[in-house]
Amino acid sequence: MAVGTEAAPDTTAQRLGIVAHSDGPFVPVQTRSERPKSTLHDDFAAVEAWQTEWKLTPIDRIRDLIDGPLDGSPYPIQYPDVAHTTVEWIDRTDARIGSAGIPEERAAANGWSSFEKALRIAIEGEPESLTVTRAAMGSAARAAHVLVEAAPQSKGLVILDSRGSAALTENVEIVVGEGAHLTVVSLQEWDDDARHLASHFASIGKDGKLTHIVVSLGGSIVRVNPSAHLAGEGSDAELLGVYFADAGQHLEQRVYVHHDAPHTRSRVTYKGALNGEGARTVWVGDVLIGPRAVGTDTYEQNRNLVLSEGTRADSIPNLEIQTGDIVGAGHASATGRFDDEHLFYLQSRGIPEAEARRLVVLGFLIEVVQRIPEPVLQARLVSALVAELEGAA
Amino acid sequence: MTTLKITDLQVSIEADGVKKPILKGVDLTINQGEIHAVMGPNGSGKSTLAYTIAGHPRYHVDGGTIELDGEDVLAMSVDERARAGLFLAMQYPVEIPGVTVANFLRTAKTAIDGEAPAIRTWGPTLKKAMTDLKMDPAFAARNVNEGFSGGEKKRHEIVQLELLKPRFAVLDETDSGLDVDALKIVSEGVNRAHADTGLGILLITHYTRILRYIKPDFVHVFVDGKIAEEGGPELAERLESEGYDRYLTPTA
């Protein structure tokens, strides 16, 4: 647990972390909410392998996404007509952009600097679920910006379904109005060669609730960093994730929950499986309980199931508490091998090894999938997970 | 008649890279319908016998044979043994997160029978098996053994025994950790399965308590990886009063 300390940087350069770590008595930023923020790429120091934010990421494979020119034009999307929902392209100067949060690292800022129009997805009232599919992003480096808005007192489910090829740097803003209940599912079922860097910024109003589910199965490098700002009193965030890394695949998620109002609640549950040489996952979970967030109730956990040799899972929970007057704060992290005793038990009841393995792995991952309130998508994801298992067996 | 025949069985485990012999030549034949109690002090190798019959990978067979009607059990995988009709009720059943009891039992039944149970009859069959063992049918929706008490885990083992209908069952200290009521419920389940299917039973226990409810035809006393004495039910009564001391005290 890191207890917050006040960092008092005295120059702009230091504030944005431009000073290299070897340059004298530089006090590193420790309190998560004081991490530098900017929408401009050049405000951030060049990305290097030693930096905390990037040291677990294969940066040499994504230099173009971090620093290169990005195509920020609109791309093909598919979505059905659903009453009480709006899907539209809005200008980058629109006042609503930036209302949920802005980048804290250079790649996200590159995406922000580069997009031309933002995709706005809005719900009012209690619409049917809405799926927006992005299946033709192309393999040239591009930037995207998505704004998801749930009007006050609305209730709905928005699925962002990404597939096909991609070399994408994007920012996704999620604004949950007062009393609204929004579920956002970010589905990464990319082709094998896709590379995808995403920062999600959610702001949750008074008594609002966000359920945010990241599903990463496909892609070569997928880094999705969701942050939730519990800005309104009584707001609630459930941040869930499920991922399955095959040979050579890098799946990363850096989660940040900022309790910034009284009586806020958060639950973070990420579960992943790794199978095959070079399968790589990273989970970082930062929770900050700010000085105003009395009555906070938070628990975060990450569990990884290692199915073969040659994999690596990093799992780093951080909890920072700036007020003592809370209901509860805890975290758990466990990365374990497939338990042969599970296999023995099931096999001793006649269940063949392959089927026993499938039962156990699906059982491990299904907890998160079952939280998606959409049976058709649930069933599809179960099939996708089975295919992952069998493809790598 | 179906027979499970164990001949000169020698088994070792590896601990910290050192091979440690546990079973040192066990001979035991169980015919269909017979109930054999294997009793012995802690560390005598009773559970090793149970897990070796089931095929747990931790136990290395150094010599001897296990045959089921002449078929080489040791050559079978764990699941093949179960499908051949062997069942092990475990002392410490593991919890399996995310796999419901209902899903587990249906999958196991399908694997054992070679076909899925009829949907119409399976539900009531499952419910009856659970209520017979005084298990709330709501447990079917819970994950396998997750959050079950020690007694509930044992009852769940016997539910499986009744549903899967093996030809031979090894009960590994099924009585341990049970209070009198639970012991009765579990014993009734075993006796019911025995009456229904005429299976052979190898009942492994440290205490004679369970033998008040499940009547053995034969009693074998296990000491230091071997059978030290064999007899009928009267041997159990003698153990009840004398304990294992006379097997452990070196004779002058």
Question: How do you describe this structure in short?
Answer:
The complex is a heterodimer of chains A (393) and B (252). By secondary structure, chain A is of the alpha/beta class.
What does this molecule look like?
Chain B: Pfam families: ABC_tran (PF00005). Chain B: Belongs to the ABC transporter superfamily. Ycf16 family. Chain B: Residues 4-249 form the ABC transporter domain. The complex is a heterodimer of chains A (393) and B (252). With 393 residues, chain A is α/β, with parallel strands linked by helices. Chain A has one domain. Chain A has 6 helices and 17 strands. In chain A, the strands form 2 sheets. A 9-stranded mixed beta sheet of chain A has the order 1-2-4-6-8-10-12-14-16. In chain A, strands 3-5-7-9-11-13-15-17 form an 8-stranded parallel beta sheet, covered by helices on one side. In chain A, helix 4 (340-347) packs across helix 5 and helix 5 (353-369) runs antiparallel to helix 6 (375-392). The longest helix of chain A has 18 residues, at 375-392. Chain A starts with 11 loop residues before the first helix and ends with a helix. Chain B has one domain: P-loop containing nucleotide triphosphate hydrolases (Rossmann fold, 3-Layer(aba) Sandwich). Chain B is built from 8 helices and 12 strands. Chain B has a 6-stranded mixed beta sheet, with helices on both faces. A 4-stranded antiparallel beta sheet of chain B has the order 2-1-4-5, with helices on one face. In chain B, helix 4 (119-132) crosses helix 5 and helix 5 packs parallel to helix 6 (180-197). Chain A binds chain B through residues 339-342, 344-353, 355-356, 359-360, 362-367, and chain B through 54-57, 77-79, 81-83, 87-88, 90, 93-94, 96-99, 103-104, 107-108, 111-112, 143-144, 160, 164.
